[in-house]
Automatic annotation (TrEMBL):
Name of the protein in its database record: C2H2-type domain-containing protein
Region Disordered, annotated ranges: 1-82
Lineage: Eukaryota, Metazoa, Cnidaria, Anthozoa, Hexacorallia
Skewed-composition ranges (Acidic residues): 1-24, 39-48
Feature: compositional bias, Basic and acidic residues: 25-38, 73-82
Top-level division of the source organism's lineage: Eukaryota
Record organism: Pocillopora meandrina
Length: 160
């Protein structure tokens, strides 16, 4: 079947009139061939429909990219924000008979128990209240056995 029998003039035929070749040469500079016939309108409509679809896809992509960005933090606002963390550690009062657990032990010893900050007993109580690092379990067991042996050796023999 030839193109003339189909009535489809969308294919390029070099045997057609010479005028169409001059139009095509002017369009070839842009890299597009001009299509003649009734199908021009249909092609234009399809192209516009495709561009609309592509444009909507691009806008969706832009919107999605904008929504997924990390928000900026203002350095000035972050710098002015105050930290409310309390760095005082709760400690038990080392005085015999006092079961207070306080965050400011020096103030407690001065106000409740009436110690002077310069006294040696005040300083000894503060050093006693410092947290001691916990020793490994194996070392604790060795010390416990040594204390038990020492106690057995120092005790007087029991009478029978």
């Amino acid at each position: 079947m030839s193109c003339e029998e189909d009535g489809d003039e969308s294919e390029y035929n070099p045997d057609q009139d010479e005028e169409s070749s001059s139009d095509e040469s002017s369009d070839k500079s842009s890299g597009h061939e001009m299509v003649r016939g009734d199908s021009d309108e249909e092609i234009v409509e399809e192209e516009s429909a495709n561009t609309n679809v592509n444009k909507s896809d691009q806008s969706k992509k832009k919107a999605a990219a904008a929504g997924n960005r990390k928000g900026k933090t203002n350095a000035d606002e972050h710098g002015q924000k105050r930290c409310n963390k309390d760095y005082h550690k709760k400690r038990c009062c080392p005085m015999v008979g006092c079961s207070a657990v306080v965050k400011r032990l020096p103030a407690h010893l001065q106000t409740v128990h009436g110690f002077s900050p310069k006294s040696s007993k005040y300083k000894a109580l503060l050093s006693k209240a410092l947290p001691q690092p916990k020793r490994p379990y194996s070392v604790q067991m060795i010390e416990k056995r040594a204390a038990a042996i020492k106690r057995i050796e120092t005790e007087p023999p029991m009478p029978d």
